[in-house]
Amino acid sequence: MRFLVLSDIHMRNKVIGWANKLVKAHDVDALMVLGDITQFGPPEWAGEFFSKFEVPAYAVHGNCDPPLVLDWIERTAVSLHRNKIQLEGETLIGLGGSNPTIFDTPNEQSEVEIYESLLPIMETGAIMVTHCPPYGINDMTRHGHHAGSHSLLRISREFKPKAWLAGHIHEARGIMDVEGAKFMNPGAAKDGFSGIMELGESIRMELLGRVD
Questions:
Q1: Please, are residues 204 and 182 in contact by the beta-carbon 8 Å criterion?
Q2: Looking at residue 141, which CATH number applies to its domain?
Q3: By the 8 A CB rule, do 48 and 41 touch?
Q4: How many other CB atoms sit within 10 Å of the CB of residue 92?
Q5: Which of 83, 91, 105 is nearest to 161 (CA)?
């Protein structure tokens, strides 16, 4: 199963056009959307976004998405927020929002909330789908600071995921191998960036070239 991975769309209509072209060009089966679909709303734009694609979508919301975005995800896609599903023999576990930021955005959680919300659904060897990355992994800001979540790093160390998808830090695009797991930040879709994740005998990740 092949996913087009998008994050940090921030309500850019142009993403719909080029993402649909990539869905066809890469024979994509579904979207995996990592949050910040809107730019502080309106929430219904998230529903409009998902309705423009012929393939199904799996998604979490981001810290810049108002709370009602989660309702629209649940209506028009498969919500992975605080949820666990099975796909192609793999377990996917998700969490939307972020740890606290300096910007006081609508969907921030304390580190305690992040850990306690994931702990009941965690299992070893899952594929994690979050908006925020674990601390120290694809999370370096342009100012040279790590902005990821310490609780997500703790989750990673305790449960040893197979793979982890996260966005949030626009400039931290990349793929890293950490303790046998692949971590991908596909970059900000608002800037033309995306990635591919393919599930099969192994998990394959690829960063796609920028689309203008």
A1: no
A2: 3.60.21.10
A3: no
A4: 21
A5: 91
Number of structural domains, the chain? Answer: 1
CA distance 69 to 78: 13
Q: How far apart are CA 96 and CA 80, in angstroms?
A: 8
With contact defined as beta carbons under 8 Å apart, do 117 and 151 qualify? no
Give per-residue pLDDT as tens, 117-162: 999 999 999 999 999 999 999 999 999 999 999 999 999 999 999 9
Query: Are the CB atoms for 135 and 172 separated by under 8 Å?
Result: no
How long is the chain? 212
Burial of 20 (0-12, 13-18, 19+ CB in 10 A): middle
Q: Show the domain range for 25.
A: 2-208
Q: Helix, strand or coil for residue 74?
A: helix
Are 40 and 64 spatial neighbours (Cβ–Cβ below 8 Å)?
Answer: yes
Q: What is the mean pLDDT of the chain?
A: 97
What is this structure's pTM?
A: 0.97
